[in-house]
Amino acid sequence: MYEIEYLDIEEDKDYESIIKKVISTCFNTENLDKTKLYIEITLTTPENIRKINNQYRKIDKETDVLSFPMFEKEELEKGIEENKFNKEDVLGNIVISIQRVQEQAEEYGHSFERELSYMVVHGFYHLMGYDHIEEKDKLQMRKKEKDILNILKITRS
After folding, report:
1. In what order do the strands lie in the sheet with 37-44?
2. φ and ψ at 58, to 5 degrees?
3. Is the CB of residue 128 less than 8 Å from the CB of residue 147?
4. How far apart are the first and last CA of the chain?
5. Which residues, in sequence order, are bridge partners of residue 40?
6. Looking at the domain assignment, is residue 67 inside a domain?
7. DSSP-assigned letters across all residues of the chain
8. Which residues span the domain enclosing 73?
């Protein structure tokens, strides 16, 4: 379902616990739990995420989360419907800046768990082909993110 890599930060079982419950809920909600798809998640520093952002997106700035999907939305939906993901295959990669998660949790006045959960959910839905460029798409993506966090009872407070 997922693999976690630590890039220049220490391993942390609390991070892994949060990620496990979020990814499990996402997979169940989106009917991926019967597939052999998995997500590669890299937890790293602001410096590393900036390098990755520059290398792959030609944007030389730090960010909180990056997502690299392996499928187009329609291709993924069709594959799930036709049960084509019965061999191990990567859904995509999510890269998260743990320092930014901490900073944003403090800035927004909610828990680290809530912010990390949101980053994982947000990254997951990018892997599923959703985006937030157009307002109608943003509303759809935000609803899905909110639904997952509500199922997990993870709130902003």
Report:
1. 2-7, 37-44, 89-97, 65-69
2. 60, 35
3. no
4. 29
5. 3, 93
6. yes
7. -EEEEEESS---HHHHHHHHHHHHHHHHHTT-TTS-EEEEEEEE-HHHHHHHHHHHH---S--SEEEEESS-HHHHHHHHHTT---S-EEEEEEEEEHHHHHHHHHHHTS-HHHHHHHHHHHHHHHHTT--SSSHHHHHHHHHHHHHHHHHTT----
8. 2-151
156: in domain: no
Give the type of residue at 25.
T
Instruction: Give pLDDT tens digits for 2-21.
Output: 999 999 999 999 999 999 99
The model's pTM is: 0.95
Question: What's the CATH code of the domain at 98?
Answer: 3.40.390.30
* Residue 157 forms part of a structural domain: no
Structure-block tokens of residue 17: 């616990």
Neighbouring CB atoms inside 10 A of 36's CB total 11
Q: What are phi and psi of 70, to 5 degrees?
A: -105, -10
Q: What is the pLDDT of residues 116-156, one digit of tens each?
A: 999 999 999 999 999 988 999 999 999 999 999 999 999 77
Contact 85, 79 (CB under 8 A): yes
Round to whole Å and give the CA distance between 39 and 110.
26
